[in-house]
Prior knowledge:
single chain; 313 residues; 3 helices; 53% helix
Amino acid sequence: MSQYNQSSAPQNGSNKKNSTILYWVVIVILLASCLYLFMSKQQMAKENSDALLQKQQTIDSVKTDRASLQADFDAASAKIDQLASQNAKLDSALQGDKVEMAKLQGQIKAILTKKNATQAELTKARDMITSLTDKTKQYEARIAELEKENTQLTGQNKVLTRERDSTVEKNIALKRVGSVLHASNIRMEPIHKRRNGKEKETSKAKKVDVLRIIFDIDENRIAESGTKQIYLRIIGGDGNVLSTPSNASGVMTTNTGEQIKYSVLRNIVLTQNQPVKDVSIDWQQDGDYTKGTYRIEVYNEGYKVGSGSVELK
């Protein structure tokens, strides 16, 4: 009986020791499990955080790229509008370039206004904006070239215009000079009027009652038909121009701009390319005629077109 009890005591101690070991093993396993679960959770949290961060960075990158692309696109579009506005006259020569750039602008705008544009689409937009920028530079260079050509043409046109105007002015001047009438066969007849009304030519100054000026107007192929003004300057023996209010004497301007006195103005009717024969003008003055040489000068359009003289004794 006592032997049985003695053999049971060591067995109980061994069981107790095994239970303690098992207990600690369980505890270690639980701790390891908890640690593993904690580490796993931390790892998952870190991975989730990294994923969220990467996603946010991607979103931010897309937003940044979109903003950058939008800024570049706006700058390129503004440049195109500026060039088109400043060079409206060149539109016909650049219409093809404008159409192509407008097409690119439409495609880029479609991507940039798309809310969920992918990175690939934004990359495509970037390439198109680069192409648009290059085309804008080419467009600007072409405009500069056309403006240079236009400037040269404008300069040439100005030269041609000046030459044309000069030629026109010369032609006008030549026509004006060519249309000036010419007087010929000029003679001055000192007339003495008798009491019976008959007239007799005289060379004595004291007997002269009327100084009759007679001349022809030669035919003119340039002067147009119509009424023409003929100015007569009668210069007396003392060298002074004769003038009286009754003959409406006055002042005329010559072709050189000089102001000179005239004795009488007479209107004549001219038919183009036909002469006017025996134009007769009587000069009567209030006082007596003096001895000396009397000269007559005929003017038309400011030009002296004929002259003659007579000697009174």
